[in-house]
Design a protein that fits this description.
- The chain has a domain of 80 residues: Winged helix-like DNA-binding domain superfamily/Winged helix DNA-binding domain (Arc Repressor Mutant, subunit A, Orthogonal Bundle), CATH 1.10.10.10.
- Helix 2 packs across helix 4 and helix 2 packs across helix 5.
- It starts with a helix and ends with a helix.
- The strands form five sheets. It has a 26-stranded parallel sheet, covered by helices on one side. The protein has a three-stranded antiparallel sheet with strand order 1-3-2. Strands 5-7-9 form a three-stranded parallel sheet, with no helix packed on it.
- By secondary structure, the chain is mainly β.
- It is built from seven helices and 37 strands.
């Protein structure tokens, strides 16, 4: 591989290491393995990233494509075959077995002799293995030891790993008194991972690991206490206690952890934050989401002057202290689902030079302080499902705002302030299920707006002319008087237009008098080349045309027609993968579907369609649901060999099913209340069937159904 050959020796070593490391490992953890004062580890990783050999995710996940990983592992295998003594990485314990091992010995039992021939090992996976014997000088170069599932008993002696920087004991049986804490000498340890160690009641004494920087105790369900030695780890920068639900107290000496940058206590039973926390001058991230016993933040948090992220989601705190203004570097403040918080402090305005994201979703806040408009750096404001009655009149002062979320704020009424038109950076505006009544015509000035979501905003009568930058438009209102003009919105990728007033549906079968006549129905032609998703549920749409002439919706993947008075759909684009037609009681005929070779899901529910012409052409179809329809036949069904699920319900006009024995991939078959279906030919040959329900039709009592049900039960009976 050319790009691999371009790498330096050090970069090649990092590439080969990553090929062996666990998938999506945290890059910050992995970097300890490559620490070299003369060669910064991130320089090597960056070189690999530039050449597209690795990627780093938004949460620092270190990722390598499967083929590249296999390429790297093959290089390692060839090098090890040439000279096993130089092996630096061991992921397969079978390679450690000596030719003359004692017969009858457990496959996961190893002793020092199994590893003595590999003095260059830097990375070793010992998952679920047991070790015994004298390990003096066996691992002089080991830097990363993954020993997940380690047993409670520790029978090795002199297990000295002087260069070890990463120890992973996740899902192990270790306790705080485990023998390994005494026998394993690891003075340079940087990372200790004890995730899901269910037998830990207290964190171990770590005074022998003075250089420890990252301690992970996540998901230790019985952990009740932290050993005092933790507070004296002068280098500790990350302490992860997430979901240790028995932990209800943090050490009073917490403030002694001067180097701590990240403290994660989400999902614990911690009841209060020690006052000493205010002395943690380097703390950047404090996350206490889902701490259901946490009711108070001390005023001493004013001392957290380096804090950039404060997450208190679903905690029971009742107020945010005014001293939050001292967190001058705070960028993200999340109070989502803190249902006891009724207001924000006015002092929040003093975060104007730092705060970028504020989330008050699910709180009892009914009014934003006037000072909030001083948050000039705010990019994201989320206040879904709270009691906000109006947006600040000076909202235009939030000049950097990119996202505004106020969905399910039923108290939010009236028009949107004209000042919103000054939000030149606004990309996303979501006001779903609110009571707003309209917009200023100047909404066109929002030149960056991409998503406008106004579903179930039932006070809106019409929309002004929309901006051409939109990529997603979702609007539904019971009072909508006119459909928005779409012809210039050429960047649209998703459209959802609806009017949920079912009284306006023309329903011939119920003989109800419609509110308007058929000739009042609209012809809708959509020519949007980038459109991927189209959902229509407006009752005045009578005829639909997707594309015109050489212009068509060539990228349309999903089409949903629900509760419209459609009488005709002119043509369906071949790019469709999902087609759903629901409550279209005026639509008696579908256009031919034989050319929809990419369609994977077809739903016909409460439709007057009598036939699916070209059904046999749906060669990729996996899901077919037909319910409450006038469908008369399913000619071509036997050719749908990729079908996984077939549900037929309340189709009284549907005649006999043709032979379905060719549907070898079918997992689910449901036939109910289809009174004309007497038999299911080929049913007993469906070997992949996992769910079969035939009810309230004559086929229910047939021999084919009974035998098929017995065949499905046989595997479970045998097991």
């Amino acid at each position: 591989m050319a790009s691999y050959e371009e790498l330096s020796k050090e970069q090649k070593e990092i590439f080969l290491d990553i090929a062996c490391l666990p998938a999506d490992v945290d890059c910050r953890i992995a970097s300890f393995m490559w620490h070299n004062p003369k060669f910064p580890p991130f320089d090597g990783v960056d070189a690999l990233r530039v050449l597209s050999l690795v990627k780093i995710g938004k949460n620092n996940e270190l990722r390598m494509h499967r083929l590249l990983r296999e390429f790297g592992q093959e290089i390692i295998r060839k090098e090890d075959d040439l000279d096993p003594g130089t092996r630096g990485r061991l992921c397969n314990l079978e390679l450690a077995r000596r030719p003359k091992r004692m017969e009858g010995k457990d496959d996961l039992n190893f002793d020092a002799g199994d590893f003595k021939s590999m003095p260059n090992l830097r990375f070793l996976i010992l998952d679920y293995a047991k070790v015994a014997g004298d390990f003096a000088n066996v691992f002089p170069n080991l830097k990363w030891l993954q020993w997940q599932g380690c047993t409670r008993d520790f029978e090795a002696t002199n297990f000295h790993v002087e260069k070890l920087v990463i120890l992973d004991l996740s899902w192990s049986k270790v306790t705080e008194d485990w023998g390994g804490w005494r026998e394993i000498k690891m003075p340079q340890l940087k990372v200790l991972n004890l995730t899901s160690c269910a037998d830990l009641l207290m964190s171990p004494n770590l005074s022998s690991c003075p250089d420890l920087e990252i301690l992970i105790l996540e998901w230790c369900p019985r952990l009740m206490k932290l050993d005092p030695s933790i507070c004296h780890l002068k280098c500790l920068s990350t302490l992860n206690l997430r979901f240790c639900d028995e932990l209800n107290m943090l050490p009073i000496e917490l403030g002694h952890m001067k180097a701590l940058k990240e403290l994660l206590i989400d999902g614990t039973s911690v009841q209060e934050i020690p006052v000493s926390m205010g002395y943690m001058k380097k703390l950047e991230i404090f996350s206490a989401s889902n701490c259901l016993q946490l009711i108070h933040l001390p005023d001493s948090v004013r001392g957290l002057t380096a804090l950039s992220v404060l997450s208190l989601e679903n905690a029971k705190i009742t107020r945010i202290p005014a001293s939050v203004e001292k967190m001058v570097k705070l960028q993200i403040l999340s109070l989502k689902d803190c249902c006891w918080i009724g207001k924000l402090p006015d002092s929040i305005c003093n975060l104007g030079n730092s705060l970028e994201e504020l989330d008050i979703t699910g709180t009892c806040i009914s009014e934003l302080p006037n000072s909030i408009t001083c948050l000039g750096h705010l990019k994201v404001l989320k206040m879904d499902s709270c009691f906000i009655r109006e947006l600040p009149r000076e909202i235009g002062n939030l000049v950097n705002l990119e996202e505004l979320h106020a969905s399910h704020c039923r108290s939010l009424k009236g028009g949107i302030p004209a000042a919103i038109n000054s939000l030149d950076c606004l990309r996303i505006l979501r006001l779903v299920h609110s009571s707003i009544s309209g917009f200023s015509s100047e909404i066109r000035s929002l030149s960056c707006l991409q998503t406008l979501d106004l579903l179930q905003c039932n006070k809106i009568r019409q929309l002004p002319e929309l901006i051409s930058s939109l990529t997603c438009l979702r609007v539904s209102s019971e009072r909508m008087e006119a459909l928005p003009d779409l012809k210039d919105l050429v960047k649209l990728e998703e459209i959802c237009l609806g009017d949920k007033d079912s009284k306006e549906l023309i329903c011939p079968s119920t003989r109800k008098k419609p509110k308007f006549r058929s000739r009042d129905l609209l012809f809708v032609s959509i020519v949007l080349p980038k459109l991927k998703v189209l959902e229509l549920s407006h009752p005045r749409i009578g005829e639909l045309q997707l594309g015109h002439g050489s212009l068509s919706c060539t990228h349309l993947k999903k089409l949903v027609l629900s509760g419209v008075n459609l009488e005709n759909v002119l043509e369906l684009p071949p790019s469709l993968s999902v087609l759903s037609i629901r409550r279209c009681l005026s639509l008696r005929q579908l256009p031919a579907v034989h050319h929809l070779s990419k369609l994977s899901e077809l739903n016909l529910i409460q439709s007057a369609v009598e036939e699916i012409k070209g059904l046999q052409g749906l060669i990729a179809l996996e899901i077919l649901n037909i319910m409450h329809c006038e469908i008369r036949n399913l000619n071509g069904l036997s050719q749908l060999t990729e079908l996984r699920s077939l549900i037929l319900s309340d189709c009284d006009s549907l005649g006999e099913l043709l032979d379905i024995s060719s549907l070898k991939m079918l997992n689910v078959l449901v036939v109910q209340r289809c009174r004309m279906i007497h038999t299911n030919k080929g049913l007993m040959e469906l070997t992949s069937l996992e769910e079969l329900r035939v009810s309230e039709c004559k086929a229910e009592s047939t021999q084919q159904v009974q035998v098929a049900l017995m065949q499905m039960m046989e595997p479970s009976v045998k097991s």
